[in-house]
């Protein structure tokens, strides 16, 4: 185990969102640890690479999915070989150019060294509804629109 640097963690996260945006279930699932877990925006759970790939393949085949953009808020080493990445994400529906603010979310990603590479152990999506703070929701949409306008998929917050 070695210390995981911020660049390595952000690169893995970027590949994850790129795989989603390409609608590649195999590439997306392949970034997870064999026993990795993914908790969707709606609370649905997928456990293990095979289930993640199978479930996403069915989703991608049944309808057009929106594309992600993200603002990484934190990358923190939890212990040697384990890292937490937290990001705010927005989605652009197919055929559109603007974010759909009601699906903004906060993603927490736990990454571990496994199989001689950095892998995702857990991806957790939480809706960024901000029920008691509509201004926070507006600020988040503005921040994510900046990422989208810059032509990026992933950007460090404040840059």
Describe the protein in words.
There is one protein chain. By secondary structure, the chain is of the alpha/beta class. Helices cover 33% and strands 37% of the residues.
Topology:
Blueprint: H1 6-22, H2 25-30, E1 32-39, E2 45-47, H3 49-62, E3 67-79, E4 82-92, E5 105-114, E6 117-127, H4 134-149, E7 154-156
Parallel strand pairs: 1-6, 3-7
Antiparallel strand pairs: 1-2, 3-4, 4-5, 5-6
Q: Rounded to an integer, what's the Rg over CA atoms?
A: 15 Å
Q: State the separation between the terminal residues, measured CA to CA.
A: 30 Å
Instruction: Write down the CATH class.
Output: Alpha Beta
The CATH architecture can be named as Roll
Q: How many strands appear in the DSSP assignment?
A: 7
The succession of helices and strands, N to C, reads: HHEEHEEEEHE
- Structural class, by secondary structure, is alpha/beta
Total discrete domains: 1
**Mind describing the biggest β-sheet?**
7 strands, mixed
Task: Average the pLDDT over all residues and give the rounded result.
Answer: 94
Task: Provide the low-confidence segments as ranges.
Answer: none
The count of helical stretches stands at: 4
| Helical fraction | 25-40%
In short:
With 159 residues, this protein is α/β, with parallel strands linked by helices.
Give the tags.
globular, single chain, alpha/beta, Nuclear Transport Factor 2, Chain: A
């Amino acid at each position: 185990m070695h210390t995981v640097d911020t660049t390595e963690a952000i690169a893995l996260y970027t590949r994850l969102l790129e795989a989603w945006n390409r609608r590649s279930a195999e590439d997306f699932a392949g970034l997870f640890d064999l026993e990795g877990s993914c908790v969707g925006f709606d609370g649905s759970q997928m456990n293990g690479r095979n289930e993640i790939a199978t479930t996403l393949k069915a989703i991608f085949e049944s309808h057009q999915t929106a594309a992600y953009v993200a603002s990484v808020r934190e990358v923190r080493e939890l212990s040697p070989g384990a890292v937490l990445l937290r990001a705010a994400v927005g989605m652009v529906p197919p055929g559109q150019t603007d974010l759909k603010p009601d699906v903004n979310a906060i993603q927490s990603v736990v990454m571990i060294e496994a199989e001689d590479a950095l892998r995702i152990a857990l991806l957790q999506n939480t809706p960024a509804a901000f029920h008691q703070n509509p201004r926070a929701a507006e600020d988040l949409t503005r921040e994510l629109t900046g990422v989208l306008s810059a032509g990026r998929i992933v950007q460090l917050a404040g840059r």
